[in-house]
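Subject: Sanity check before I submit

Could someone independently write out the structure tokens for this chain? I want to compare against mine line by line before I put it in a report. The sequence has 211 residues.
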Amino acid sequence: MQDGMSEFESTHGTTPPRAVGPRRRLRFLGAAAVAAVALVAAGCSAGSGAPDATTPAAAPTTTAPPRAYAAAQVQALVTFYSAADNDPPGSTDIAHPSDRHHTAGGTGAFDDPITMATDVREIPVGGVVYSPKLQRYFVMEDDCAPCIAEWGASKKAHVAFWIGGGTDSRVTACEDSLTSARPVTIQYDPPPGLTVDTRPLYSAGKCWPAT
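---
Independent answer below. Compare away.
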């Protein structure tokens, strides 16, 4: 070993590397980690666009206004008919069948009015009336020869209400007993919710209100 040379220089001929203490190594590692995180963050930011957080406003909902009913008070001659005097006799056929009724019928409720006959010029097919006396709804589904003649001659209001499929003599007597000699009040295009009596107008030989 030469004078002034360290053991490392004597053996390797070079100056030994300076030792790196624990604190310096941590400082290097910390700097590298920060750089790596920065690169990853930059890559994520560049590779994926942030979704548009703006959500289109929902269209405002609108509610249709409730249907307005005419509820017109009309004075009309009201008569009655049954299968006994229908055309053809003994049948429940109607001139204007629909999805509501294919044959004469109904309970008198707002959702199931009873068949009515008149002139289509007086009340259109599907038109509904309410009888305060009988407390039930009726719907125009059939033709009535006397009603057509009277409306054509003098615009006299005349409607015929169906009372059932009876064909015996008692049903005819019931029709006569329910018929008023003078015009009575009926309500054209009535609203729902009016009082309803769903007892049949004629059943098993009995006439309303005894049914």
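---
OP: Matches mine. For the report I'm noting this point. Residues 72-207 form one domain.
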